[in-house]
Amino acid sequence: MRFGRVYASNNIKLMRTLKKIHTGIFRDGGAGAFAQRRFRERRKKLMMKEGRLVAIAGVPYGPGGKTTWAYAHCPTYQEPAIMYLTGVNQNNVILLLDPNSKISDEILFVDDRDRLMEFWDGVRFGVGDEQSLREVQSVTGIRDVRSVREFKDVLKERLFKQKKKNLGTLWLEGTRRGKTCAITTDHNYDFKKKLAGWLRSWNAPPLKNIMKNHFELRLPLDKYDVANARKAQEITGNGFKVMLKKFRNFKNECQVQGFLEGQMLMQSPYGLSYPSIVASGANANILHYIKNDDDFSKDEMMLIDFGVRWMTMHADITRTFPVSGRFNPMQKILYEIVLKAQVAVEKKARAGVMIDALNKVCWDKISHGLAHNFVAVGGKFKLQYEGRPHGVSHLMGEQEHDGDPFRNYSRQPMKSGWMISNEPGLYGEFRLRLNGKTYDEKIGIRIEDNLVITSDGCMNLSDKIPKTIKQIEKLMASRQAD
Ligand SMILES: [Mn+2]
Fold first, then answer.
1. 205 with 352, same domain?
2. Which residues sit with Cβ closer than 5 angstroms to ligand 1, an ion?
3. What is the distance between the alpha carbons of residues 293 and 280, in angstroms, rounded to a whole number?
């Protein structure tokens, strides 16, 4: 995509001309007037939809805070809603939107400038410093920046100026077994509880959840997001290709993980999308295998689930390949079954179709493939699960798994601009006698690409990352100088 490249290179140039601190504090769009317009438009749309006062909090602690270790490997740690609306990757910020105010309809609350904290953590922006203020204004487009210490008073004052005294905030909730429930452990929930307490003490009406409106605006990616997602795919794919060419040098899963992640991280300061799964043989039947510490042997297959971020966009890729570099006849049959299911899902994916419909196509195709291409030639198998092992698609975007975490979106028609994964899988024990040889293996195969939904189909962002049997065998046979 030509435009994508132009944007990415412009952005790097601008990032270089801006002071170095921007790359730490602003994770997306550190691109002057352009970023201002983009973030401002997103906030305006949310204000129009809500029509009431809205407060959203960032994560309370960043690296170096109370939850240091949780964030240790995530250079981008901000609440995605704050990232989406401001681009600010700094903890302890609150955004207040007041669509009914004519004087200032958006206020960003940040920490006071703290030189001692900066000695430990590097430059942060804060109230009480002219240069900081100008930087926040120039990237976010928000003129009114104040200290978080003032938040409660300003909120009360603004709330009492509203006719209906309504306040909205974001917390994640969904329907599970017919009941509405919230995730009770994240910072959004804590912030909601604090606000609800204040509202009660002020005799104001209860809080409203902005989740639905927020996701409606945030989930369809714009062309800059798509360009950034493509960049994430490119880096992820390059890492995979280099790793596969050098694969003969590795004996243990952790070597594969270390090399692959190193390749990706050398090309992106935004961090991994998630810690990689590197699973050989039977380990690939553990869906969230993260130990990555087994030696592997030449007859096994290996499943790797990996990806890098670029700005706020994520790649989420899975590839499965034979350790020996050549698929044996049984592995070939099973691999083709999964690949065909993936192709069928991609064909079906378009705006208006539901993810549940993709699930049906996927898992029917796999059952059909097993019956007609495996059992029909004498194959026997025992799956690790009943029905289906997992969903074929989840939403992606500002987070590697985006949208409501209960996945109620699976039963909604998909919209243009949604990014989803396409990840059929087959996990179990398989046995086949072919040409006088018996194959008996525990195998997990998953092939995962990322799609952007359009009105008449979808774009496969991962189409340059090798996945056919021919492509993989060719790559593994090619030697790369050590
Ligand atoms: Mn995925």
1. no
2. 316, 421
3. 10
Query: Is residue 340 domain-resident?
Result: yes
Which residues have a Cβ under 8 Å from the Cβ of 203 and sit 6 or more positions away? none
Helix (H) or strand (E) holding 36: helix 33-50
- CA triplet 141, 147, 151: central angle to 5 degrees? 95
**Ligand 1 centroid to residue 405 C-alpha, Å:** 13
| pLDDT of the residue at 359 | 98
User: Same structural domain for residues 151 and 102?
Assistant: yes
- For 178-209, what is each residue's pLDDT tens digit? 888 887 778 899 999 999 999 999 999 999 99
What tokens appear for 141 in the block?
A: 């487009």
Of 193, 217, 241, which one is at a domain's C-terminal end? 217
Residue 88 DSSP class: B
Q: How far apart are CA 429 and CA 439, in angstroms?
A: 10
**Residue pointed to by tokens 């910020």:** 93
pLDDT at 16: 47
Based on C-alpha coordinates, what's the Rg of the chain?
Answer: 24
CA 391 to ligand 1 centroid distance, Å: 9
Structure tokens at 76: 């981008």
What type of residue is 427?
Y
SS3 363: helix
Q: Which pair of tokens denotes residue 132?
A: 């900081």
> Does some domain include residue 383?
yes
**Model-level pTM greater than 0.90?**
yes
State which residues form the domain around 201: 2-217
Residue 133, in any domain of the structure: yes
Question: 265: CA distance to ligand 1 center in Å?
Answer: 19
Q: Which of 165, 192, 217 is the last residue of a domain?
A: 217
- Centroid of ligand 1 to alpha carbon of 421 (angstroms): 6
- Supply the pLDDT for residue 175: 82
Q: Which of 325, 180, 310, 183 is nearest to 250 (CA)?
A: 325
Structure-token pair, residue 220: 């369809």
Do residue 194 and residue 250 come from a single domain?
Answer: no
Question: What residues of the chain score a pLDDT lower than 70?
Answer: 1-23, 29-33, 63-73, 480-482
167 Cα–ligand 1 center, Å: 35
Residue the block writes with tokens 């960049």: 231
Q: Is residue 482 one of the residues assigned to a domain?
A: no
What's the total number of domains in the chain?
2
CA angle 127, 28, 50 (to 5 degrees): 75
Distance in Å, CA 458 to ligand 1 centroid: 17
pLDDT at 8: 42
Instruction: Give the H or E element holding residue 355.
Output: helix 355-369
Q: Ligand 1 centroid to 288 CA: how many Å?
A: 11
- Beta strands per DSSP E along 225-374: 277-280, 301-306, 309-310, 313-314, 317-322
- Which residues lie across from 95 on neighbouring strands? 56, 108
